[in-house]
Amino acid sequence: MPTSSEDVDISGLDVGPLDECKMVLVVRTDLNMSTGKIAAQCSHATLACYKTLLSSNPAFLRQWERTGQTKIALKCYSEEELLTLQAQAQSLNLCARSIQDAGRTQIAAGSRTVLGIAGKCIWICYFLYMQSLSFHTRVGQIGEQDYWNTATALNLS
């Protein structure tokens, strides 16, 4: 089941005919989900973002569909990290929806499993670059290569 702060306004995700749009799916690795479980949870996150965009910003959704419905899978290591990423994405007015598992199979009910984030490519790149800086600053590693890895993943280089 999707969860989010519904008061975040994503109607301002303006797009033009040349804007490329992407979706990022952030998967928690600490839950040790099977490949099939990850696929199902990523599908839930994609659908949650899709439904949100359909009702609040159909122009953005159409552009995402026109530009190939690109999705990028990334990982995070805890629920705390996932919630931090969600709050930061929402602060940039990106569509950000996390999924809570129903608890019928491998994962405890209510566990947040995947975060879906949708936005214009340039904003997604900015968001990921800032996360890369934040992560590497915490562990004492930072380098210009982080930006280029992010840009390459987003087809910006």
UniProtKB/TrEMBL annotation:
Family: Belongs to the PTH2 family.
Keyword field: Hydrolase
Listed SUPFAM superfamilies: Peptidyl-tRNA hydrolase II (SSF102462)
InterPro entries according to UniProt: Pep_tRNA_hydro_II_dom_sf, PTH2
Top enzyme category: hydrolase
TM helices/strands, residue ranges: none
Keyword hit for Methyltransferase: no
Stored NCBIfam families: arch_pth2
GO MF annotation list: peptidyl-tRNA hydrolase activity
Name by which UniProt lists this protein: peptidyl-tRNA hydrolase
Reaction it catalyzes: an N-acyl-L-alpha-aminoacyl-tRNA + H2O = an N-acyl-L-amino acid + a tRNA + H(+)
Cellular component terms (Gene Ontology): cytosol
EC number: 3.1.1.29
Source organism: Lentinula detonsa
Alphabetical list of CDD domains matching this protein: PTH2
Highest taxon of the lineage: Eukaryota
